[in-house]
Write a structure and sequence with these properties.
Layout (H helix, E strand, L loop, with lengths): L4 E5 L4 H12 L3 E6 L3 H10 L5 E5 L5 H10 L7 E4 L14 H29 L2 E6 L12 H20 L6 E7 L7 H4 L6 H4 L6 H14 L3 E3 L2 H10 L4 H12 L8
Parallel strand pairs: 1-2, 1-4, 2-3, 4-5, 5-6, 6-7
Helix pairs in contact: 1-2, 1-8, 3-4, 4-5
Length: about 260
C-alpha cells in the first residue's frame, strides 16, 4: 500500500519541523521545503520514521520557488498540505527597506496563495484532501512595530475563512487555520526582535505543542485552532478591544528596546 503524501513548507525548524515530524510518524511520505540548506538535515531526521522524504531548498516568496517545490512532487497526488512558511520583520515601518517588507508580503501572502491555489484545485477536483494554513492571533491585533507581519497574518486568517466557504460543497476537502501566539522559534531572531519584550519573553509557546494542536485540528477537519489557553483568551479579548488600545499594547511588546524597559 502506497503511503499518503504531504507537502510541508517552512519545515527546517520550528512549527514546520514539528508538523513534518508528526506527519512522518503517521506514515506520510514527505516533500519538505525551506529557504535554507538546513532543510536537508531536517529531512534526514524525518526519514528515521521509515517514510520517503524529498527536501527542497527554495524561496517561497517567489512564484518560481513555489513552482520548484511543486515540480519536486513529480506529479504525485498531494493528500495533505501544511502551508506553514512565513517571515516576520521588526522595527517601525518607515525604517524598513522596501525589499525587506516586500519579502514578508510575498512569503506570507503571495507565495502562500499561489501554492494553495495549485494544490487545492486538484484536491477539490477529486473531492479529497486536507490543508493546514499557519495564520496567527497576530492577525487580530494592529501590530505596531510589526505592522507588515500582523497585516499579512490578518490577510491569511481572513483568506482562509473565505476560501473555506468557497469550496464548502467539496465535503472531502478541509481547510484548517492554525493560529498560535508567540512561539519559541528562530522567528524573533530572524525578524531582529530579540531586543523586544515579546522576543525576549520566556513564556512563548513550545513549537511541538503548537504543531500537535494544529495536527489534531487538521485531522478532525476543524476550521480553526488557537493554540494555547492564554492565546485563546488574548484572541477573544482582541475581538472586543478598540484598535487603538490593541496597537498601544502591541507597541509595548514589539518596539525595539522594549526588553530593556521591563
Amino acid at each position: 500500500m502506497v503511503n499518503k503524501f504531504a507537502i510541508i513548507t517552512g519545515a527546517s525548524t520550528g512549527i514546520g519541523f514539528e508538523l513534518a515530524s508528526i506527519a512522518a510518524e503517521n506514515g506520510y511520505d514527505l516533500l519538505v521545503v525551506a529557504d535554507e540548506p538546513l532543510i536537508d538535515a531536517a529531512a534526514q531526521d524525518f526519514k528515521r520514521h521509515g517514510v520517503d522524504v524529498i527536501s527542497v531548498e527554495a524561496d517561497l516568496s517567489t512564484l518560481q520557488g513555489v513552482d520548484t517545490l511543486l515540480a519536486a512532487a513529480n506529479g504525485r497526488q498531494v493528500d495533505l498540505l501544511c502551508a506553514n512558511a512565513g517571515r516576520g520583520l521588526g522595527h517601525g515601518f518607515l525604517d524598513q527597506d522596501v525589499s525587506d517588507w516586500r519579502r514578508v508580503v510575498d512569503t506570507n501572502i503571495t507565495g502562500t496563495l499561489y501554492l494553495l491555489q495549485k494544490v487545492l484545485k486538484a484536491m477539490v477536483a477529486r473531492d479529497d484532501g486536507k490543508v493546514l494554513i499557519t495564520g496567527s492571533i497576530a492577525g487580530f491585533i494592529p501590530g505596531s512595530f510589526q505592522a507588515v507581519y500582523n497585516g499579512s497574518k490578518a490577510f491569511v486568517d481572513s483568506f482562509a475563512d473565505a476560501i473555506r466557504n468557497e469550496i464548502k460543497d467539496s465535503k472531502g476537502v478541509t481547510v484548517t487555520t492554525l493560529m498560535p501566539g508567540p512561539v519559541e522559534t528562530e522567528f524573533f531572531d530572524r525578524a531582529d526582535m530579540l531586543n523586544t519584550s515579546v522576543g525576549s519573553s520566556n513564556s512563548k509557546s513550545d513549537p511541538a505543542d503548537v504543531a500537535r494542536d494544529g495536527w489534531n485540528a487538521l485531522m478532525k477537519g476543524e476550521a480553526h485552532i488557537v493554540s494555547g489557553w492564554k492565546n485563546k483568551v488574548q484572541a477573544a479579548v482582541a475581538h472586543v478591544t478598540p484598535a487603538a488600545i490593541l496597537a498601544e499594547q502591541h507597541r509595548k511588546m514589539a518596539k525595539h528596546g522594549s526588553a530593556d524597559e521591563e
